[in-house]
Amino acid sequence: MTEQIRPEVVVLLGNRIRAVRQGKDLSVVKLAELSGVSRRMLTQIELGQANPSIATVDRIASALGTTFPALAGVLGEGPPEGVEVWSTPNGSWASLLQAVQTSQVFVEMWKWHLVGGDRYHVSPAAGAPETMAHVLQGQLLVRSGSSDLRVDAGGSARIGNTADHTFEAGTDVAVFLGVVTMPRL
To answer: What residue stretches are annotated with the HTH cro/C1-type domain (predicted)?
Structure first.
């Protein structure tokens, strides 16, 4: 299952990206240059016509001097239930619950619900330290290259950010909390 941001979140992000870009008096061409995202893709994102990866939105946010959580409305006094950012037709989902920032890092807390057969691919962010996961229900399987990490309910793990990895349910359903730290650039 490929990574898909929920359609209503795509529209929300597109509107906020456009507003921040225009507020900074940046053209789409200049934002494309700063973010490394093509002008065409940026236009489609702003119009809610493209479903970018979270990594792509992170690059755009960084170029705008903001963050994915800020664009999603979770930074600071966001909704107490967070924002359901990702979901699949099978019933898997991920919600960005909360985020905080310091002068050096952004910290995001996610809640995941993965059903068997669904997976979520993660590409490491430059300079990001390890991700932490705590499994609330079931078993989480983290695949990276030739190695697998299994974490049972009640267990926690640190997941390296030096290589791509995939989250999967090791049983029928895996529910876990994830904490991601991103360096401020």
So the answer is: 17-71
Between CA 146 and CA 136 the distance in angstroms is 26
**Is residue 100 over pLDDT 70?**
yes
pLDDT digits (tens, 9 = 90+) for 118-154: 998 887 776 777 889 999 999 999 998 778 899 999 9
Residue reference for tokens 């983290």: 142
DSSP 120-154: EEE-PPTT---EEEEEEESEEEEEETTEEEEEETT
Of the chain, the percentage scoring pLDDT greater than 90 comes to 47
Q: Could you tell me if residue 97 is left (phi over 0), alpha (psi between -120 and 50 degrees) or otherwise beta?
A: alpha
SS3 176: strand
**Domains of the chain, CATH where assigned:** 7-66 (1.10.260.40), 83-183 (2.60.120.10)
> How many other CB atoms are found less than 10 A from the CB of residue 150?
13
Q: 8: helix, coil or strand?
A: helix
CB atoms within 10 A of CB 167: 24
**Phi, psi for 22 (deg, rounded to 5):** -65, -35
Q: How many CB atoms lie within 10 A of CB 38?
A: 11
- Write a three-state SS string for 11-73: HHHHHHHHHHHHHCCCCHHHHHHHHCCCHHHHHHHHCCCCCCCHHHHHHHHHHHCCCHHHHHC
